[in-house]
Structures are given as C-alpha cells and as structure tokens.
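Tip: read the tokens left to right.
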C-alpha cells in the first residue's frame, strides 16, 4: 500500500461522490472524526483505517497514481491543511 496514493484516492473518491466525512464514515464503518482527518490530509492514519476506507471505493476508480496526482480530485476535501505550529 502506497500511503500517499491511497489518501489521494480516498479524497478524490469522496469529492467525486460529494460525500462528507459523516457519509464516508458510515460507508466505511468509521468515526467521522477519523475520516475527516484523512480527508483533510492531517494526522497519521493507520493501515487499518486506510484499508477500511479503500474497501468502499470501486477497484477501478482512478487507479493510476500519476493521473490521480495531476487531477483536481486529489485536493483535500474539507478545509485547508493546517499551517506549522508556532513554538513558544
């Protein structure tokens, strides 16, 4: 499993379907907060999380990582990525 390609594919599928984190969470039997982190490309999802989310996606959906990376669908679904935190 290539983690970045998997996350981009998950984000692309959610955007393609118009799914929210809650909708995707129901389909993948995952908490919406976990799905939201993946869709925002934040945190460090486990292999179990990515596999559960990938299992919802049809096998033929955007399998070419080069085409996926070049598509508009690979952008985060919810909000912008967080900036670097300031250290006091």
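Filled-in amino acids:
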């Amino acid at each position: 499993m290539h983690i970045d390609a998997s996350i981009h594919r998950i984000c692309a599928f959610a955007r393609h379907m118009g799914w929210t984190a809650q909708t995707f969470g129901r389909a993948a039997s995952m908490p919406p907060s976990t799905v939201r982190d993946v869709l925002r490309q934040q945190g460090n999802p486990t292999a179990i999380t990515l596999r559960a989310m990938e299992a919802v996606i049809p096998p033929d959906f955007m399998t070419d990582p080069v085409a996926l990376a070049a598509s508009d669908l690979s952008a985060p679904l919810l909000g912008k990525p967080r900036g670097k935190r300031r250290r006091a």
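The CA atoms of residues 10 and 54 lie 7 Å apart. DSSP finds five helices and no strands in the chain.
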